[in-house]
Amino acid sequence: MISLTQRPEWIDLKAHKETLPPLKEMNNNFTLEHQGIYLDYSKNTITKETLDKLVTLAKACDLEAWREKLFSGERVNNTENRSVLHMALRAPKDADFSIDGKNIMPSIYKTLQRMKTLSDTIRSEGKIKDIVNIGIGGSDLGPHMVCEALKHLADTPRIHFVSNVDGAHINETLKHLQPETTIFLIASKTFVTQETMTNAHTAREWFLNSSSCTEEDIPKHFFALAANKDSVMEFGIPEENMIPFNDWVGGRYSLHSSIGLSICLSIGFENFRALLDGAYAMDKHFRTASLHQNMPIILGLLGIWYRNFWDTNAHAILPYAQNLHRFPAFLQQMDMESNGKSVTRDGNPIDYPTGPIIFGESGTNGQHAFYQLLHQGTSIIPSDFILIKKSYNGNKDHHKKLLANGLAQTDALMNGKTLAEADNAPHRVFEGNRPSNTIVLDELSPFHLGQLIALYEHKVFVQGILWNINSFDQYGVQLGKELAHNILEKGPQTPLHRYVLEDVLKEL
Ligand code: G6Q
What we know:
Blueprint: H1 8-17, E1 31-34, E2 37-40, H2 48-60, H3 63-71, E3 98-99, E4 102-103, H4 105-125, E5 130-134, H5 141-149, E6 158-162, H6 167-174, E7 182-187, H7 194-209, H8 218-221, E8 222-226, H9 229-235, E9 242-244, H10 261-267, H11 269-288, H12 295-309, E10 314-320, H13 327-339, E11 357-360, H14 371-376, E12 383-388, H15 396-415, E13 436-441, H16 446-467, H17 478-490, H18 495-507
Parallel strand pairs: 5-6, 5-7, 7-8, 8-9, 10-11, 10-12, 12-13
Antiparallel strand pairs: 1-2, 2-13, 3-4
The structure holds glucose-6-phosphate (G6Q).
């Protein structure tokens, strides 16, 4: 197979880049809209011709065929020999999703029904005041981000997330809770993850140490969102309290599965369904819209454009919504774990950059922190600004200021300020020509949040296809886990290990 950088379409794009005027001279007007999500990508160093050339590259890389393979349940996660079908989780009941000829929709709807019944019951009875989701990585970041994003729709019970193996996380959380009014969701696909199982055992101990709760109460207070039945039973959670997690759902793509139970409990099943519907709307758009009109494809190609043709190595995610403050962290995992790879799908070394560093913070907080570097630093960092048209907190004055700030930043990044405009003070010069996308949601509703999540999921997929990598495995997280296990089993092995561990080993 011809290497990506040897493709004529790639070589053509490299030459084309040299012919482009600076961004601030471009006067672009590129927009796309789909069911209340709007993308303005005018502030990019591209022309119509650049877009045509990027689309031609995507076609040469068989993007459309790969998209079909993904949706049709082929085992596109080749290193783990798995299908990747999180899109089925949000599809209508009569959708056509199957694996090896077996329709998977009935089992998805059975699980959804269980999630509905359980969350409706707990919410309507009102006896449970607190829910603690214990999970990490994909079993934490997605549901945590959504519960924060939609907390303006939340009522009781309160939702807490415990992920870190640092005992402070669970201890600080439990400090304020009563065992009789608390439910624990042990969220772990494998049900062997060290951090999650350590926290789950601590929670169990805390529960049983209370004067009012015994082993017999466990079924009313502990639920497993998991794929591994044996480990769930061994932990002491009965089978009927296990909500399944299928092996064709990757951790970082799992918030629409049983891992979303905390979301149902926080904002109600109907809102969770609307989140699924929004993601489904974006799935349909991604699968059917032409490449030029396709939001995830355009975002993916712009990412390739900067990473590979402009040598950028980071990408900022800047949501102008306080409730989206976990969104950059969520995308960080989705993108960096998926596309932080350096071999091709068939195991050959890669000679071009792949996934960038993803980072971000909600606006306007980030403006008073790291935007200095975005504006005047020596690296160009393409940014995505996410704006919400309608205030979700009712405070119009705040909202007007919030939006004005977001818009102003995109203008400042692009237009900059010349030396003359800066009264000949070099430290006041803004070079400008710094690209950004502006994504606008009509409102911060479950539906539009669902669209936004799926938009980025598919963007990541598009980039993985062009880079010819498997975006669905994560072997890069294994080595550290193995070495930590070794230290725990065999004791300290270097002077630094001994220095760091001496006190804790004495105390144990
Ligand atoms: C995500 C990864 C990873 C995973 C966690 C938790 O795609 O696979 O972040 O979600 O390691 O794994 P468990 O759910 O198995 O505990």
